[in-house]
Specification:
mainly alpha
């Protein structure tokens, strides 16, 4: 399980860095077009790239993985809301942040035994 979680983490890092962070930091036209199509000013491009980089690195580090997952989930919630407001296609664009978030949380669950124990204890604890 741990190995699968780290493989998933690596895949997530590679995807986010290549498809989202690098285009924003380099100011690529695809990133500019994507940002303006959902109504965000171009001035936020590099700041969003830096924010994504910091959050994905927080997620990648074992000690800060859960914090990074929570904060990156918040960022993904913003992307879902922005796409919803802009009228983007539901399954292709709007819900992509949900898919990515689920993948991230499954990776954390598989790679981190302490987090796994926390989830199991929280979900299946008997309430008096």
């Amino acid at each position: 399980m741990k190995k699968a979680g780290w493989i998933m983490t690596g895949l997530l890092l590679a995807f986010v860095l290549a498809a989202s962070v690098a285009p924003k930091l380099l100011g690529m036209q695809a990133a500019v077009d994507s940002l303006t199509s959902i109504g965000w000013p171009i001035g936020y491009l590099r700041a969003l790239g830096v924010l994504e980089l910091v959050l994905v690195l927080l997620f990648a580090l074992p000690r800060t993985g859960p914090l990074g997952a929570v904060l990156f989930t918040a960022l993904l919630g913003g992307t879902v809301a922005s796409h919803l407001r802009a009228g983007s296609p539901l399954f292709g664009f709007t819900l992509f942040g949900v898919y990515l978030g689920i993948f991230m949380w499954v990776a954390l669950y598989l790679r981190d035994p302490a987090f796994r124990a926390f989830v199991r204890g929280s979900l299946f604890a008997r309430k008096p």
